[in-house]
Each structure stands twice: as structure tokens, then as C-alpha cells.
Amino acid sequence: MRRLMVAGNWKMNGTRSSVAELLKGLKSQEFSATVDVAVFPTFLHVSEAVEALREVGVAVGAQNVATQSGPGALTGEVAASQLKDAGCSLVLIGHSERRQILGEAEGVLVAKFKAAQEAGLVPVLCVGETLEDREAERTFDVVGAQLDSVMDALGVEVFSQAVIAYEPVWAIGTGLTATPEQAQEVHHAIRARLAARNAEVAQGVRLLYGGSVKAANAADLFRMPDIDGGLIGGAALNADEFGAICRAAGS
Question: Dmax over Cα atoms in the chain, in whole Å?
């Protein structure tokens, strides 16, 4: 049976004082033993988060990683091995903001996915369609192509040690949320796409929903059979709200 996961993406937010306050708030939350909880701070705050959250069992991941797994001459980048050494266990790959705003191509994302696994990190592959794609009924084609780029290059088996997060671009930071039924439809299609290559891998991989998830709508989303938790954005910056979402998953 798949364990639920709730992960908080802090994005480009946080000062020393605000992060200290957020970590203090997270340490005071009651997290369910049946739910895996993780946070993704900026590189600057990874070590602080690892140290603070170790005692409460909250995992720490990074928001990005270099295309090579080990250190080298790549100015401004952080290697997967360095993230592992700092205490990270996960890393986001292909978040829509990196795809859409920073122009990261599929080949780059595949290299990052591979580098992360080589260093022992769990990649969280983010996939999703724009509003234009959805209105043109291209959702399954777009999401399928994003999955295929990894499977074609590395094999479907790599998803036995990975997580997939479906984040419709039109619902990220907009206040819009896919209905539980809309989200489930895409999650089911993702699992079916994986199953076409390996049913066992498809059944085991965790699929998270991201896109304006809040405590008020979390329980309805997490009840869907193919939704195994959430990748939380803005609500993850509020310890009480994030804790409530985690408890919704646990219920």
C-alpha cells in the first residue's frame, strides 16, 4: 500500500528570521505516523531545516539540482552529492516555474533526474499542463510527453525510486484548484501511462497533486484513489496551515 506524502515547496521565500519562525512552528505540529512529510527550502536554508526537523521526522529536499551528480567546474550550481551530504533526501525536478520561466528543456530535466538518483536522492518529477493546453484538450498529451521523456531515456523502472507531482500550471499560485475529479482523472492517466510499460512500478509510485492545495480542500483531494498526497506551495509557508493539510492526509 502506498504511503501518503505531503511536501511543502517554499520556493524563493524565507529570511533567517522567518525561516527560524517557520521551523519552530513546524516542530510544534502533530504529524501523523502514516504520512511522510517533507519540505523544500531554498539552498540557503537547507542545513538549518535539516538540523531543526530531524527530531520530528520531517524530510528535507532541494528545489533544484545540477545536471551532474558530483562536484566539478559548474559555477553557481549545486551537485546532487552535495545535497545528499547536506542532509537532503529528495529534490524537485521540472517544476513548471523552471520549465516555463527558466526554459529548462526535457533533456536537461532527464539529466537532473539521473544525477539525483545516482547520488541517492529521490527525484520528485513535476508534470502539468498550461491553461491553453487544457482548453485545447491537450492535457494528457502534454503530461504524457513529460513522463515519456524520462521513461524513454532512463526506463520506466526509475520511477520505483521516484515521486511524481501533477501540478496544472493554471492552478499554481492562482487560487484556482482542479476539482478532485479533474485531478483524479489526470492522476489515473499518469498511472495508466506507467502501467503500459510496467504495472508493478505504476502501482507503487506515489502521485502527488499540487495547485493551490489548502487545508479546506485537502481532504477531498486526498480521498481520490490515485492521489497519494500533495506538493504544497503558498500554504507551506504557514506552519499551522501546512500542519492541517498533513493531518487531512492522515485522516
Answer: 48
Which residue range is the domain that position 112 belongs to?
A: 4-250
The candidate with the shortest Cα–Cα distance to 209, out of 140, 142, 132, 126, is 126
Please identify which of the residues 95, 97, 129, 187 carries the catalytic annotation.
95
Q: What is the CA radius of gyration of the chain?
A: 17
d(CA 191, CA 197): 10
Q: Which of 104, 129, 167, 241 is catalytic?
A: 167
Q: Annotated catalytic, 200?
A: no
Q: What's the confidence (pLDDT) of residue 212?
A: 85
Task: Say how many domains are in the chain.
Answer: 1
- For the chain, helix (H) and strand (E) counts, in that order, are 11, 8
Low-confidence ranges of the chain (pLDDT < 50): none
Q: Residue 171's pLDDT is what?
A: 84
Residue 71 in grid coordinates: 562536484
Q: Name all contacts of 144-153 with Cβ < 8 Å and 24+ positions apart.
A: 144/189, 144/193, 146/94, 146/106, 147/190, 147/193, 147/194, 148/193, 149/106, 149/107, 149/109, 149/110, 150/109, 150/110, 150/113, 150/125, 151/194, 151/197, 153/110, 153/114
Please give the pLDDT value at position 174. 78
pLDDT at position 164: 98
Q: What is the CATH number of the domain that holds 172?
A: 3.20.20.70
Which residue spans within 94-183 are E strands per DSSP?
Answer: 122-127, 163-166
45 given a catalytic annotation: no
